[in-house]
Structures are given as structure tokens and as C-alpha cells.
Amino acid sequence: MRISFVGAGNVAWHLAQAFEHAGHHIVEVFSRDTRNARRLVNKLYDTQVAPDLDFAESPAELIVLAVADDALHEVVSHLVLPESCIVIHTSGTKSLDELRQLIEIYSDVPAETGVFYPLQTFSREVPISFTDIPLCIEASEPKIEQVLIQLAQDISNVVYLMNSAERRILHVSAVFACNFTNHLLTISKRILDAEHLEFDLLKPLIRETIRKAMEAPDPAMVQTGPARRGDQQIIETHLDYLERYPAWQGMYEVLSESIRRTK
After folding, report:
1. Number of domains forming the structure of the chain
2. Which of 83, 92, 157, 245 has fewest C-beta within 10 Å?
């Protein structure tokens, strides 16, 4: 399949290479920052940097909008599509209807639409295999759904059909599981750094915590710590220390109360 990308961020970086490794041809990459597009193109075999969003003469059968949610409207408003093209976005929160309506408003040619949402955290510098990454698919028509399912199965063994409402809920849950967890680890490191202690001390604990949560039927079953035990004396000691970090002290209180209330 001939595929073009709009966006050259972390998702596009990994997804374009995965598609190419599966035998698809990445035709063009467009990015507002030409340097980012060129970096990605240099990782691909026979791909051009698109100078703008005019794809009218492009041979692409599929255009992937791998852009930030806030940029989707602006991008589609300037996008010029070729005939008989499928346009998909990779967002966890933007609905299929929103993309479809934007295409209807701004495009001079009709286009089928879909969603291709990889449920994973991506960093450009960290290699990743798509084999076990869940890919959430939604499409405007059954025939487009089949195209996207096949494309997803070309790179992953885990493919789900999921509507926009379900995907939005999944994304909220993913923010708690991934983004918030990573931020809490960041706070842990900042506290240790301030006291000249090594973050490596926590790594065995972090690995064991994640392992138990992954293997348990419900992570609540393996919850430990002073809030779970109801050890208020330790909690007060921690809160006293955290007075120098008011924002983190507030987070500690909120999370401790949530743990206490979770059955």
C-alpha cells in the first residue's frame, strides 16, 4: 500500500518504519518542521519530503494524520487530497465523526476516513516492536474497516475494533496508567536528587510493583503502603517532610485518600 504521513513526531517516526518493514511504501512525509520530516525520510527507503499539504498529485492510497489533537482542524483545513484516498488519524480522543466532518467541509474531493490508534507510549530514540502493541481501528465504511484491519495485522498481533467513545475511555485510562505513573516516578527522582540519593535504589521496587500489578487480576489486590494499612502516623511524617513541596504534598494527600477508599 502507498502511504503518506502528515506529521513526523514520535508516532509517525515508529509507525512509518513499521509499515515499511511490513512491505508498504511510504511515499511522502510532511511536517511543519522540515528538519523533522527529513530525519524520518532518512530512516525510510524511497520517501520524499512533502513541501506542503497539497497531495493532489500524490500516488498515496492512504494519508496518516499523525498530528497533535489541537492541530487536526488546521491541518485538514489546508489539506488537498488525491482522488480515492483514505484519510486516518492516530488520536486516542478525537472522534471519527470529527475527522469525517472536517473532510466534508474542507476537501474538494470525497475521502473515506478512519482511525488507527496505537495504544503505546513512543519516544523517537527508543526502538520498539509493534508485534504486541494493541491497535484500535475504526472506519467510516465496512470496506475501509477491512483495509485498516489488514494494515494493522501486517504489523501487530493485537488488533481491536473500537468506536470513538470506547477509545476515549481507553485513552483516559492510559493517561493514568502511563503518563501519571511516569510523572510520579519523576517526582520520586526529584525528591531523591534533592537529598543526594540515587534513583537506582528505587528501581527494584518499581520493577516488582509493575510485575505484581501486571500479573494480578486486579492491581488493587496487591496494593501496599501506609495508606493501604491505614498507618496515619507514617502518613503524617511524610506530609511533614513534603511541606517544602506543597504541590507534591497535595498529590500525596489526594492519592493516599484514594487508596484508603479503594476496595
Report:
1. 2
2. 83
- C-alpha distances in angstroms, 93 versus 102, 106, 127, 157, 172? 15, 21, 25, 23, 9
Band (pLDDT 50/70/90 cuts) for residue 225 is very high
Nearest residue to 96 via CA among 7, 1, 31, 168? 168
Q: Where does a domain end: 141, 162, 183?
A: 162
The one-letter amino acid code at 223 reads: Q
Which stretch of DSSP H or E encloses residue 139? strand 135-139
- What is the mean predicted confidence (pLDDT) over 166-183? 97
What is the model's pTM?
0.93
> What pLDDT score was predicted for residue 77?
98
Phi, psi of 89, deg, nearest 5: -120, 165
Of 162, 189, 219, the one marking the end of a domain is 162
CB 13 within 8 A of CB 124: yes
123 and 173 together in one domain = no
Print the domain residue range for 74.
2-162
Burial 95-127 (b: 16+ CB within 10 A, else e): bbebbbebbeeebeeebbbbbbbbbbeeeeeee
